[in-house]
Amino acid sequence: MIESDRELSAMVQELWDNDTNRLRPGTDYRISLQGKVGDTMGSDDKNDAAGFPLFTYVDESIFKKETFLAFISLLDNYVSDTGEPEIVTPEEEAENHKFLDSMMQTPTMKIAHKYLAEKNLSPKGQEEFKKQLYRIWFELYARRGSSRPDSSGFEHVFVGETRGARTVIGFHNWIQLYLQEKLGHIDYKGYSVSANSPLPDEKKHILALQFSWKDGIKPKGSIFIGVSPEFEFALYTLCFLSSPNERVKVQFSLYDVEIVCHHYNQKHIGTTYPVLLKYQNIK
């Protein structure tokens, strides 16, 4: 592991240790992995290896916490179809700012800000840092194939988008997955593993999976499960700003993970998500 990745791993471990709102698997939430699916999927359901929902239980009292409330309020602010320009209303802009304000009060975001400011990657002042976060996550841009601003880092990563009638892109957040599944909009198809990745574990916090949403298919997605919005927001911001590489390997807690973080024009997040490489042998 190169030195920069080692330093980043130490920071991610600190974020993890301070994620006080993280849910406990098997206690605060339970998932049902069911069967394994392949990497590709046609329009039929022959590849469906899961007859039941992914989530069997979530303690929804967590959703009353400030950062969860602020996060959930943003999930209905977007048109999923890429190519359809996004219109941000004053009310939605206010919700974006409220979300950022709630993020910046959390231990994880304070840790990330301190590190980024010390490295001269972020402004030291709170308001300037918030402006930087707004640009990275909420400023609109035109995704591939579109001539008008139709996407943002936040929409792509946390809410999910559709391209054409059949493809789901982005959508790397467990809260959105749970809420959409509860509404009947998600059909979980099963877990996904590549030749080199470990089998998923219902008691662990990272899962590769396949699902359908809004008539489209997400052939292979990868998400953290049970973590707080502030942990993911801090982690992805940290990786985006501190590494020019679009794939960063970090070790923390039980996990060896590659954080994929694609830049868009070097100003915005194109996409970002975790890829589980292996479980660490913690004695």
List the helices and strands and how they pair.
Blueprint: H1 3-17, E1 29-31, E2 36-37, E3 55-58, H2 66-72, H3 90-104, H4 107-118, H5 126-138, H6 153-159, E4 161-163, E5 167-169, H7 174-182, E6 186-192, E7 206-213, E8 216-224, H8 229-242, E9 247-252, E10 255-264, E11 268-279
Helix pairs in contact: 1-4, 1-8, 2-3, 3-5, 4-8
Kindly name the structural category.
alpha+beta
Give the CA-based shape.
globular
Number of helices: 8
Q: Give the N-terminus to C-terminus distance in angstroms.
A: 21 Å
Helix content: 25-40%
Beta-strand percentage?
15-25%
Note the main sheet.
4 strands, mixed
Number of strands: 11
Protein name: Uridylate-specific endoribonuclease
Family: Belongs to the ENDOU family.
Enzyme class: lyase
Subunit structure: Monomer.
Primary descriptors:
four-stranded mixed β-sheet, globular
Would you mind describing this structure in some detail?
A four-stranded mixed beta sheet has the order 2-6-7-8. The chain is an alpha+beta fold and 283 residues long. Helix 1 (3-17) runs antiparallel to helix 4. The protein has eight helices and eleven strands. Helices cover 33% and strands 24% of the residues. A hairpin with a 3-residue loop joins strand 10 and strand 11 (268-279). The longest helix has 15 residues, at 3-17.
Q: How would you summarize this macromolecular structure in one to three sentences?
A:
This protein is α+β, with helices and mostly antiparallel strands and 283 residues long. It contains eight helices and eleven strands.
